[in-house]
Design brief:
The chain is α+β, with helices and mostly antiparallel strands and about 450 residues long. The chain contains 14 helices and 23 strands. It has two domains: about 110 residues, Rieske Iron-sulfur Protein, CATH 2.102.10.10; about 220 residues, Alpha-Beta Complex (Naphthalene 1,2-dioxygenase Alpha Subunit, Chain A, domain 1).
């Protein structure tokens, strides 16, 4: 089916979205072109390519790219394609390519900035139209490549906002991943968890800030954790704080999430205010705070630690949890299939036990093997299959619709509610991206 701009706009109303936005393969192809290949998409963090020659592969929309640390110690992002016959240059997801790229098909070689270096029988190209200085014969660069404090993004088109403008208020999530480090630096720890979800990419994003689902979806896991806590106390010991990451899901109940506000920012970004205690009173946390005061001064440190972000969605591809030092990015594969990568960061000079605490959340809540993740994955799969049904053409986002507050272009959820503001906000942004002309600034 060929969709007109008017038909696409009609898929989103103030308090609902049409199921075709999640189930139509043609819509998905248009999303790749109009969103994922026309705005800023996350590639990776500079600590993934620490040494010269280190590289990491990513997918931007439908395009394979390489993030590479060059001989000049600068980070480059290039298309993963040989300009000779089109073979991908790198196939391993990460590694070190040495001092140059080497194509395994015909042995063309390239400098780490993508410039053509040489090939066998070079003399046989004399007198032809092949020009070593012509960018056509170099590894191609995306139209726009930029980073925000070491977090690298690509925009495959030439138009639109610059990266800083695109991020806007959402840049606070990346600031927090760095500024919460007493050593004022952060780095990736190890490899990521990678999962293929059998559902549309928008279902994943919507779930991240859906305050009405945790007390229902994760209730059984939370109650099991509560029973374990009670057993540990009966044995005369205090349960580890990490167990509360699970028991909190049941402790808050179905309606206990009304106190957590959500915010909708420009360009589709949105956030959930922190529902977890940002600063429990224990020796490890107190030592961490002491180091932050020492590094930044008390006033600045308190400003950093008092930032109330539990979850930030950087539209259209990132889910960042700064207090837990985690970042997820999505790579849509089909209308009903989405690859997610979940990364964990270490805050330089933070106490080891603070790192271990956040690592426990990484494993207990966000890893592929947890009950929490299993609950979510199953529901997303059920949503995708349910939306294939024509029983109803619409997806409801009615909770507190029309009751949110807007100030200076930013939307705030109604007080003491589980407003579906972020879900409405993202679909309205989706409509704007999908109906914008090339190069138009939203």
């Amino acid at each position: 089916m060929t969709w007109t701009t008017e038909e696409i706009a009609g898929l989103v109303e103030p308090d609902r979205a049409h199921r075709k936005a999640y189930t139509d393969p043609d819509i998905f192809d248009m999303e790749m072109e109009r969103i994922f290949e026309r705005t800023w998409i996350y590639v990776g963090h500079e600590s993934q390519v620490k040494k010269r020659g280190d590289y990491y592969l990513a997918q931007v929309g439908r395009q394979p790219v390489i993030m590479i640390r060059g001989q000049d110690n600068q980070v480059n992002v290039l298309y993963n394609r040989c300009p000779h016959r089109g073979a991908q240059i790198c196939s391993a997801r990460k590694g070190n390519t040495g001092k140059h790229f080497y194509c395994s098909y015909h042995a063309w070689t390239f400098h780490l900035d993508g410039k053509l270096e040489g090939m066998p029988a070079k003399r046989e190209y004399e007198g032809t139209n092949l020009d070593f200085d012509d960018p056509e014969f170099h590894m191609a660069r995306p139209a726009q490549v930029d980073n925000y404090r070491g977090f690298w993004f690509v925009n495959l088109s030439k138009g639109g906002h610059d990266l800083k403008t695109h991020l806007g208020e959402a840049a606070a999530a990346f600031d927090q991943l760095i500024d919460r480090a007493p050593g004022k630096e952060t780095e990736i720890v190890g490899d990521c968890f990678r999962m293929v979800q059998q559902s549309n990419w928008k279902i994943f994003l919507e779930n991240q800030l859906d305050a009405s689902h945790p007390g229902v979806t994760h209730e059984s896991t939370g109650k099991a954790a509560q029973k374990l806590e009670a057993k540990i106390r009966q044995e005369g010991e205090e349960p580890p704080m990490e167990l509360s990451f699970l028991s909190d899901f049941a402790r808050l109940g179905h309606d206990g999430w009304t106190k957590f506000g959500t915010v909708g920012y420009r360009n589709g970004h949105s956030s959930l205010e922190g529902y977890m205690g940002l600063r429990p009173d224990d020796p490890d946390t107190n030592e961490y705070v002491r180091r932050m005061h020492e590094a930044y001064g008390e006033k600045k440190a308190e400003e950093i630690l008092g930032t109330n972000i539990h979850h930030m969605l950087v539209y259209p591809c990132n889910s960042v949890q700064p207090p837990l030092q985690q970042l997820r990015t999505i790579r849509p594969l089909a209308h009903d299939k989405t690859l997610t990568e979940i990364w964990h960061f270490r805050l330089k000079n933070a106490p080891e036990k603070i790192y271990r605490r956040s690592l426990a959340y990484y494993y207990m809540v966000n890893s592929p093997s947890t009950l929490i993740n299993a609950d979510d994955l199953f529901n997303w799969w059920k949503c995708q299959h349910g939306l294939d049904s024509s029983a109803s053409e619409w997806v409801s986002f009615h909770r507190k619709a029309g009751q949110d507050e807007e100030r200076d272009g930013v939307s705030y959820s109604a007080p003491e509610s589980m407003s579906e503001l972020p879900l409405r906000h993202m679909m309205h942004a989706w409509r704007e991206y999908m109906t914008a002309t090339v190069g138009e600034k939203l």
